[in-house]
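Good morning N.,

You mentioned wanting to compare the apo and holo forms, so I went ahead and generated the holo version with iron/sulfur cluster. This is what I fed in:
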Amino acid sequence: MTDNGDIINLTEAGALPPVDPGTPDDWGDGQLVDRVGRAIKNLRVSVTDRCNFRCHYCMPEEGLVWLKRDELLSYEEIERLVTIFASMGVEEVRLTGGEPLVRRDLPQLIEKLSRIESLTSLSLTTNGFTLEKMCGELVAAGLQRINVSMDTPVREKFAHITRRDALPEVLAGLEECEKYPELAPIKVNAVAMRDFSEEDVLAFAELARRKPYIVRWIEFMPLDAEGKWDQQDVLTGAELRAIIESRYPLVPVQDNRIATAQRFAFADGTGEVGFINPVSEPFCDTCDRIRMTADGQFRTCLFSRWETDLRAPLRNGASDLEIEHVIRGAVWRKEMKHYVNDPGFQPASRSMSQIGG
Ligand code: SF4
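and this is what came out, ligand included:
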């Protein structure tokens, strides 16, 4: 990575054949688009790589080598970058981690971002461990939507998969969210893993019928820090749906927005579930998502093997326009798709907790 934030050549990354970088004339100065015309409207911002859980499919028990304080973007730097992204048509911002609620004073950042008028959605993905205590402050600061990661509703299994006996706290955090009608929807995200999730599928369906939560199943992706993922461990959305429909008929929910989830309502009208199937039914053709890591590295795909440094130009006095050009150039080269199902697939250059989902 060069100091002035130039993009690493794809060939060097050995991931994909070289891609024409385009020129500022190609990139345009309106809505942020890539070279095949995908309009980029959804930005995921990681605010920390640290987490208070140790999920087996994410990181080892001892954790990872954490970023140092001065490597992290400050809230002022994040606010400036998000403002630049918003000026190029990004409408939705989701805050992620690691676990974002472990970063001090997060409501201050939410308050800053909630002042960016052109944003239509400000959301957070959390493991919910401290949500009961923080929910009110987050909503008062301007948080609009929330995704709580919870892979099983069974306490012992939860303690096993996260290496934390914390299910009661997570459920209490979800209950606290129900007190704020302005915080909607409340989504529960569960990673589906073969020989682990099957027995929880109907319990989660009943949770979605009993509570104002949208339960979404996410197929297991090769983004674990230890590289143990195996295609055999993927329990597909179709398999999950079949288990639910063995007891509760589902009907598709029409949703014209670009979204990762296939949405279904229960035929009797009680609740909704969703399936995010990046492995068995990839949705890269309509991908509108980009990501920024906690240390200011810009990723145009979850599975990127190259990144663009936005922190260096930011701290080296670059103007907003110069930073905009760096972003537009990177987006122009956005990956066409992930290659998880392709021979010779090479994993992403970072693990999920270092990207932020
Ligand atoms: S894998 Fe990459 S291109 Fe595909 S949907 Fe995810 S972020 Fe978009």
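Confidence is low (pLDDT under 50) at residues 1-16.

Happy to go through it together on a call whenever suits you.

Best,
F.
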